[in-house]
Structures are given as structure tokens and as C-alpha cells.
């Protein structure tokens, strides 16, 4: 149960922050956003505010912000259809009433001849009171009304394609950007809570019933040498311990300015990984020393975020490289099932470990979404940058076909990765 709740919280936070980034900059640019969705598939909850429907959907495989654009407008008006309309003093349509479940007064009943809500923004119809053929243009705020619900028809000025290259770039880049900002916040909070592990070979804590306790190591002791080799850092110390292959090791320890030599034998620590395999490593039973500060955690948060971005970017590039060298395997990827299993294991380690895991996932989500794949933010950014460089948009038909191929590619990969996760963790 804890694993399920942890997964729901982690997934919800990552997707909400990512999509909020898109929506925030979209609305700043004046782009109408009819829906903000967490999850995919059937709707299980919805709430409407300021022309945006906020929804939670059943399948935890992503989310989206539906932004107004020419290709997203769905016209429910058909030739011969009878509807009622309400107009303003300038004879512009403000409401198109698709049923009788409304309380509007002073409306006109018409029979549709033709209509255009993508470019022309008008209705041509027979006015039933006098059988006149009339053409009504839409006002800046025009709504479809059905089941007492209002859905705004996006004016040309409030659509994605009507905005500048810079506004569209920011809107698309904002999702990954907010993921990086989330990681920074989480890392910074962690550093304020527990400090930052020092890379100096200084003992922070000693675990009970371990070789370190047996030789009376204490917090603040510094390990100077292992088997005659000078210890340069904490990471160097762990390397030297592993190189000892489990044999007794001689440590030179500095404690309050005094030196002593102790001999201990590392023990084997076993960790079960999410895929069921067991990882073994040699330990002596000490934890790193943690530094604290007032403003330093903010800087450490920036450093850790940049470091994580560099590491994950490098790993992604290597993974892509294996596609061309023949070393690629779907075991390198995790879908929703794999992420759930890993989250379940991480949650068992405690809230602080889960926070760090969430920060790393957030960085990973940001990096992956910037890949130049048409269905992802990075692919759409490429189209916007092309328009900015060459001063003309990509041919619309070509762009739509490339986007379709990208969506199909992502769906196929997701299905294969999910099946691989199921085989790994459950079969």
C-alpha cells in the first residue's frame, strides 16, 4: 500500500509540475488552455475554472495541457442543424446554445448553412423568425453551451500558432524547465534537512554490530590510510575497501590530533534491487560526515541539479549510442510499471530517500522530454526553432505527418517497455 501511495504522489507531483510549467507560460502568452490533465484515458475527476477544465484521468502514463490551436478546434455544428444563438449589440455571436438546458433570454433560433470556427470565425444560417440568410461573426469571447456547461471557442489571437516564436519556445520549454526547478527545490530542502555528505574521509556515523564499531571508530575520526595507501577522499576510501577483496585491512586513524592503527575485516552487505537481483558490496560500517549551513544548501542544490542533469544527459546519449552499436536493450528503460516497482523499493528506505529519488526522476523527465522526438517537447521545439531561423513555418502537412510518426513511435516504445517491465518484475 505504501508503494502504491508513493508512486501516486511521485507521479502526480512530477506530471503536475511539468504540465503546470507549460500552462503557466501559455497563459502568460495569452494562449487559451481548454484542459489541464493529469493521466490519460477516462476522466475520473474534473473541475473548471477560467475556461480551463482541470481533470484527473485513470491511466498514470503522463498528462497534457490542451492548448488552443487551429488543428485542435472541433466544430459540432453541421449543415441543417438547428441551434439558438445569443448576440451582442454589435450583432456578434457570444453564445451558441446546442440544447435547451439553459436560462438565456432574447436568443435567436437559426438553421446552420455553414460555419467555420478554425479561420473564418462565423456562422451562416437561416434565421427562422423571418427565413433570412444571415452571417454572424464571433465576438472575442464566444461559447458553445451544452448541458449548462460553457466551452469557449478560441479566438485566433488566443491560439498557439498566433504567438511569437519566443512565446511558443518558452511555452514548450517550460515543462522541462519546471522539472529542473523542482529537482533544485527538492535537493535544496534535503540539504537543509540533513546537510551535505562531505567527500572528506571523515566518519559521520558508526553502525552498530559492524567492524567499525568493533575497533571503536567514532564520529569525527579521519581515516588517513588503508593498507599503507593515503586516503584522498571518501569515494577513494570506498574504492580501497572494495579492492581489498574482503581481506583484513589496516587503517591509520586520526582522532583529535592523535594517530592509531587498527585492523578490521570488511563484511558483505547485500542489497536486493527492484528487478530481484542481489547486489553485494564490502562495507566497514561507517557513514559520511554531513556539512550544514545557512545559505550553502541553496548553492549545493544548484550544484546537485546541474550535476544530475549532466549525468543523466550523458547516460541518455550513451543509451542512444547503443542503438547504433548493437548493444541496446529494453532493460535500459523503465515504463510506468518499472518506475512503480523502483518507487516501491525506494519508499521503503524512508521519505528523504524518496525525495532524492523524486528529484532525480524529475531531472530525467526534463531531459527525456527535450529529446528531438516529434511527439515530445523537444520535437515541437525543433519546429519552432526552424521557423525562427528560416522565418517561415514548416509545411503544415509535413509537420502533422512527422508528429503522427513521432506519436506512433512513442506509443510502440511505451508498449514494449511496459511489457518488458511486466516480464522482469512479475513473470
Automatic annotation (TrEMBL):
Q: Which GO terms describe its biological process?
A: proteolysis
Entry's Gene Ontology cellular component terms: membrane
> EC class of this enzyme?
hydrolase
The EC number on file is 3.4.24.-
Tell me how this protein sits in the membrane.
Single-pass membrane protein; Multi-pass membrane protein
Coarse class of the primary localization is membrane
**What name does the UniProt record give this protein?**
Zinc metalloprotease
Q: Which organism is this entry from?
A: Jeotgalicoccus meleagridis
Amino acid at each position: 500500500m505504501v508503494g502504491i501511495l508513493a508512486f501516486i504522489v511521485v507521479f502526480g507531483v512530477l506530471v503536475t509540475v511539468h504540465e503546470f510549467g507549460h500552462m503557466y507560460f501559455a497563459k502568460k502568452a495569452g494562449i487559451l488552455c481548454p484542459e489541464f490533465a493529469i493521466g490519460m484515458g477516462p476522466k475520473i475527476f474534473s473541475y473548471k475554472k477560467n475556461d480551463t477544465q482541470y481533470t484527473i484521468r485513470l491511466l498514470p502514463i503522463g498528462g497534457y495541457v490542451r492548448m488552443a490551436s487551429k488543428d485542435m478546434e472541433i466544430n459540432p455544428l453541421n449543415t441543417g442543424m438547428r441551434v439558438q444563438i445569443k448576440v451582442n449589440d454589435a450583432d456578434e455571436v457570444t453564445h451558441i446554445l446546442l440544447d435547451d438546458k439553459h436560462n438565456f433570454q432574447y436568443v435567436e433560433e437559426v438553421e446552420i448553412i455553414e460555419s467555420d470556427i478554425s479561420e473564418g470565425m462565423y456562422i451562416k444560417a437561416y434565421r427562422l423568425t423571418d427565413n433570412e440568410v444571415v452571417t454572424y461573426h464571433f465576438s472575442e469571447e464566444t461559447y458553445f453551451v451544452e448541458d449548462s456547461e460553457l466551452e469557449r471557442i478560441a479566438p485566433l489571437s488566443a491560439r498557439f500558432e498566433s504567438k511569437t516564436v519566443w512565446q511558443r519556445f518558452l511555452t514548450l520549454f517550460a515543462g522541462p524547465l519546471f522539472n529542473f526547478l523542482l529537482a533544485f527545490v527538492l535537493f535544496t530542502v534535503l540539504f537543509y534537512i540533513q546537510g551535505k555528505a562531505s567527500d572528506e574521509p571523515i566518519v559521520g556515523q558508526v553502525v552498530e554490530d559492524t567492524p567499525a564499531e568493533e575497533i571503536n571508530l567514532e564520529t569525527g575520526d579521519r581515516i588517513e590510510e588503508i593498507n599503507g595507501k593515503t586516503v584522498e577522499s571518501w569515494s577513494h576510501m570506498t574504492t580501497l575497501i572494495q579492492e581489498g577483496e574482503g581481506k583484513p585491512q589496516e587503517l591509520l586513524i586520526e582522532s583529535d590530533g592523535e594517530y592509531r592503527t587498527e585492523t578490521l575485516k570488511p563484511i558483505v552487505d547485500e542489497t536486493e534491487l527492484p528487478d530481484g537481483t542481489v547486489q553485494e558490496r564490502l562495507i566497514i560500517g561507517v557513514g559520511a560526515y554531513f556539512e550544514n549551513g545557512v545559505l550553502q544548501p541553496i548553492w549545493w542544490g544548484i550544484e546537485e541539479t546541474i550535476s544530475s542533469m549532466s549525468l543523466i544527459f550523458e547516460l541518455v546519449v550513451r543509451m542512444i549510442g547503443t542503438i547504433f552499436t548493437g548493444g541496446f536493450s529494453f532493460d535500459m528503460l523503465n515504463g510506468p510499471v518499472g518506475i512503480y516497482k523502483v518507487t516501491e523499493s525506494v519508499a521503503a528506505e524512508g521519505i528523504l530517500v524518496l525525495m532524492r529519488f523524486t528529484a532525480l526522476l524529475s531531472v530525467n523527465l526534463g531531459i527525456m522530454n527535450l529529446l528531438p522526438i516529434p511527439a515530445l517537447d523537444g520535437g515541437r521545439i525543433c519546429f519552432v526553432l526552424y521557423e525562427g531561423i528560416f522565418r517561415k513555418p514548416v509545411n503544415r502537412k509535413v509537420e502533422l505527418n512527422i508528429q503522427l510518426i513521432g506519436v506512433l513511435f512513442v506509443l510502440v516504445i511505451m508498449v514494449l517497455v511496459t511489457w518488458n517491465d511486466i516480464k522482469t518484475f512479475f513473470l
